[in-house]
Every structure is written in structure tokens, then in C-alpha cells.
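Journal club prep, notes for RB
We'll compare a predicted complex against what the paper describes. Inputs for the uridine-5'-diphosphate case:
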Amino acid sequence: METILVTGGAGYIGSHACKALKAAGYTPVTYDNLLTGWRDAVKFGPFEEGDLADRARLDEVFASHRPAGVMHFAALSQVGEAMAEPGRYWRGNVCASLTLIEAAVAAGCLDFVFSSTCATYGEHDNVVLDESTPQLPLNAYGASKRAIEDMLHDFEAAHGLRHVIFRYFNVAGADPEAEVGEFHRPETHLVPLLLDAVTGRRPALTIHGTDYDTPDGTCIRDYVHVSDLVDAHVLGLGWLEQGKGSRVFNLGTGSGFSVREMIDHAREVTGRAVPVMTGPRRGGDCTRLVSGSQRAEHELGWVPRRSDPGQMIADAWRWHQSGHYES
Ligand code: UDP
């Protein structure tokens, strides 16, 4: 049974990836500093507490587990914070990833799956966002992820680090069995905030901007179910194991939904009112981010099964009501 080192395995996407890896026959070893991750979310393999900036600790973990590959999820990922404190993003994402990549290369662990983001594309009016779209990030979050992508190319050229880069669109939903789910502190993401407004954990959802150039004035995003997303990662690992070349894949469905449409879906799924307020635009938000690529479907054989908004919100709702979720 092969071992995979999963950085950020105690976080939202990483914990779902560990579940998918275990189901596919791998042993996922979580490496996480628990700053934004949750010890309780590590359920599917061993846990190694550590920071990505700690090279000695990384070397120790590579030596003791001898992973066949790395899935690198650990990152800072809040646009607002990135606008206010770019240094944290360059240090916490770029410098930390450099340390991880150097440790992986030193250990001879040369299959690397990286979670990047559609935020690396920035704002492109009326342009289909595919993997060849120029990357012009609007904020330090997107810029830091683009820099790590560049780093991977350089380490492949010099050291043979094979990599699959996934540029995520908007990840939502939760494990259909509610073993793990989405929980950030602070929470900034639309679907959990919507459900918090439904349950009264928060007084209302604030819509960040109603004057965008979209049919209902609110931003449009391409939402992808976290379980579908992590399935793509397992396929990406298989791609590398089959000796196929390094590749970039968008992970989105190609369908965009506005904030107001998501509110309507939440109302329908929960059967309850969603208290809503309107507010100004949030700095760093793009008007419309929708994937225009089916490369992952065509080349990896990825089939998103649960990525319609109703299903995503229903799975997130089950998680919210599961008793594991707290705020
Ligand atoms: N959004 C919103 N109110 C909130 C949180 C998010 O209106 O309290 C909007 C946000 O402006 C964006 C969409 O919902 O258009 C998705 O935001 P999220 O933070 O979930 O993901 P992002 O697009 O920033 O990765």
C-alpha cells in the first residue's frame, strides 16, 4: 500500500482527500500545523504535526514514512486577508512551499499534486478561462499560487519533480457521509455562511456587492463539490504513477451561479428562509469565474457527480446538522 504525504490533511479539502486516498487503497499521512486545520478531521491515516517552514521536521517525516508522492493542500487562502497582509501569503504560501518542495526532492519523492486556484487567472471579461488563459492574479493569494506553479516547473526542469497542478474554481459541499466537512475559523466562504444564516448561527448573509455586470448584479462562480474535487486528485496521482507528463487541469464544471442563485438554492434545500443583507463589493473579487475547460474530463476521465448547487448545499447542510460542525 503506497503512502502519500498530505499537507493540510486536517483542513477542509485535505481531509476529504485523505478519505478518497484511503478508499483508493493509499495510506494518507497528514502533515499539518493545526493553525487552521482540525485534529478531529484526521480520520483516515497517520497524523504528523508540523509546519511547512520546518525543514528538519519535514525531513524526519519523509524519512519515516517514505511517501511515494505528495498532495500539497496546506495554504493560506483568504482573499481579503491576502489584500491586507500580502507578506503573510508570500511567506506562508510561497516560502513554505519552497521548503516542502526542496524536502520532497531531497527525499527522492518526485510525484507532486498541487492545489492551485482559478484566482491565478484574475479578471478576464468575456474570456473562456481555460488552462492557457494568461494568469494575471488580482491579489497576493492568486499571485502566491502562481509563483508556486512556476516553482514546480523549475524543479521539474532541474530535478525531475513530476507534478499535476489543479486550478480549483469554488469548492463547496461536504462528504456525503458527513464524516468530514467544511469548517474554517474565521469562515469567509459563501455556502457555510449561507447555512449559518439559515440556522441563526449568524444573523444574516451579507451579499458582497450587488452592482456587478451580471444579470442579477451579484458575482458568478463555478462551484465544484469537494468530493468530486478530491476524486480528481486521486486520478491526478494515477496520472503521475503512469508516467504521464506534468499537466495543469482546471477543476470546475463550466456552469456559473450567482450569489443570489445560491441563496435561492439554499432556501429550497433547507426549506427555510435565508436572512440576507446587501453590502459593498469585497476587495479582490472578480465578477465572473467559470471554467471553460473540459481537460480534466477528457484527459483524466474525471466525472463530477455531485457538483450541482442543490446537491452541494444538501451535503453541506447534512454536515452542518451532523453535530461535528460547530462554530
Ligand atoms: N460572498 C458573499 N458574501 C459572503 C461570502 C461570499 O456575497 O459572506 C460572495 C463572494 O463575493 C463571491 C462568492 O460569494 O462572489 C464566493 O465567495 P467565497 O468567499 O465563497 O469564494 P471565493 O470566490 O472568494 O473563492
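Talking point for the session: The pocket of uridine-5'-diphosphate is lined by residues 79, 170, 188-190, 193, 205-208, 219, 221, 259, 282, 285 (CB under 6 Å).
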